[in-house]
Amino acid sequence: MKIINGNSFRAVGMLALACLFVSLGSYRLNAAVIMTIGSTNAPASTLGGFTMSPLARTNPRFALVTSTSSSPSVGFNQGVYETAAFDPSASPAQSAPPYFALWSHGYTGNVWHTADSGNTRSLTLTLPASTKAFYFYVQPVDFGTVSFTIDYPGIQSGSLSATGNQGAVYVGLHSNAGEDLTSIKITSEDTSAGAFGFAVGEFGIFNTGSGGGGGGGVVPEPTSMAIFGLSGLAFLAKRVRSKRCNGSC
Question: d(Cα 249, Cα 239) in Å, to the nearest integer?
């Protein structure tokens, strides 16, 4: 019979506890979608380890639409007016409306606003299949300041404030385990400024489907992480045991 001394027993106990921790951590990761509330600055090139691709820019349709015309496409739960962010330096000069004035950090691409929609205060984005990370910006139509809440199944942001004068604010979500992102609901407060509606735009995506839109850089898959962690812990326990055992071990 081999006798496990106290130090070896503690090592085995630590290993068992570590196994439980890794197991619980993997379960937590498997259900994790992380929301990031940013600033009015231009978006970073990565989100949660994913290399992001701006959604393909197309000529604005200046009409009510229910999805973007890019591939992959983002859907809307109601008709929203598609326009482009106003560029005060454009030549010949733009006029607003129908252009949306003014976005933040000089962005002049497509945006979609709810001012002409049935529900000016709420909008749900349906993301394309195989989306692992997605960001967007939100800004009120009126030049005042409006607070928003962002809802993803199981997650709700705190109050997010944005102003209509060059104040579009970044919101990002990414999978921390490999599941696909599904839908995002944006709701504005019922204030005098909020009553005019809001705009979303400047979409960025990491998508692994046939529609494209994804770059390189992936988050480690949790099972592989767990196996790697357990292997390292087992090796550590063996080292501790071998140092403490005498020749009869």
Answer: 13
Token pair recorded at residue 223: 């099972």
Closest CA to 123 of 65, 156, 76, 168: 76
For residue 201, the SS3 value is strand
Report the pLDDT value the prediction gives residue 8, as an integer from 0 to 100. 38
* C-alpha to C-alpha distance for 233 and 204, rounded to whole angstroms: 39
Are 166 and 104 a contacting pair, CB within 8 Å?
A: yes
Distance of CA 148 to the CA centre of its chain: 16
State phi, psi for 239 to the nearest 5 degrees: -65, -45
Low-confidence ranges of the chain (pLDDT < 70): 1-31, 210-249
> What architecture is domain 37-207?
Sandwich (2.60)
pLDDT of residue 82: 97
Residues in the chain: 249
d(CA 40, CA 46): 16
